[in-house]
Amino acid sequence: MAVIRSVIRGVGAHLPKRIMTNDDLAKLVDTTDDWITERTGIKSRHIAADGELTSDLGIAAARQALVRAGIDPVEIDLVICATATPDRTFPATAVKIQAALGVTKGAAFDVQAVCSGFIYALTTAEALLRTGQFHRALVIGAETFSRILDWTDRGTCVLFGDGAGAVVLEAQPQTGGREDRGILATRIRSDGRYEDLLYVDGGPGSTKTVGHLRMNGREVFRHAVQKISGVIEETLVLSGYAASEIDLFVPHQANARILEGIARKLGVDRDKIMMTLKRHGNTSAASIPLALNQAFEEHRVKEGNLVLMEAMGGGFTWGAVLARW
Ligand code: ACO
Q1: What is the pLDDT of residue 43?
Q2: Closest ligand 1 atom to 312 CA
Q3: Which of 2, 139, 214, 317 is the most buried (most CB within 10 A)?
């Protein structure tokens, strides 16, 4: 049966120039390179310069994805930006990116699902492309988490970094068979009962301030492996593929121990995991497209490969996407 699939035509990324190492952090808070490396796998992260905004990172990532896709911005009719650190409370950062790129048709909006934002944005874009209302989408994950960190809290400030990644999706008719390219299955979930385990203690409607990230790391960790493994299994069942058929596992880059725990539970080989958090830290919604970009640049993903993406974040939100490159 003929179906419309969202095929990934191009990928791009952008990181701020400034690099902050674990040793740099040890000068700010009571921590060590050994502690951070052993507990998280992170060695350094990028930090946006003063005046360098989430949209600036997103625009640069989107431009690279468009060039690689060979698609002119005027052909784009949907721009979705996943971010929890927008330039302004409104308008959406996606609208700013849309204007900067010269995209004048269709729609642009932000998706807010914190670290799961890119999975939510891909799921939203795929569903909208399938309706036929839009044909080519830019899906961006862009964050400047350095602006919402409490730089005196060693339990959180060591984990996060800034960056952006983007993909260009194109609606293409496919056969509906096993050789189809594009997004094959998605599953998103949330459960607001866990809000207090990971949140920002400010906002325009409550404190009228931006606020700082607060987290109960141990509890988040406890939920992560179980919830992510569950949603991956649902996604695989939906698609009819087995975990052993996955060519590349591109997880949200939160913590090396979480990623290895999930891969072990699923039975995915270690050499199939894209692990980029060593140099980026946790970049929230940007982490999956940043890792996809690295996979592309290192020739670790090629046409026909089955790629599994997953994430979990504040809310809790979580989800998975299975796509054939
Ligand atoms: N340096 C040195 N010591 C530290 C640091 C630090 N940066 N941070 C905390 N500690 C101390 C604590 O104060 C505590 O000391 P105490 O025993 O004297 O009280 C000790 O280390 C243990 O603290 P825990 O928080 O229990 O440490 P844990 O082993 O759980 O590791 C971590 C903390 C790395 C945050 C871990 O819980 C984790 O990775 N959780 C997942 C969080 C996450 O990934 N969040 C991202 C968003 S959600 C997502 O993307 C999945």
Answers
A1: 98
A2: 51
A3: 139
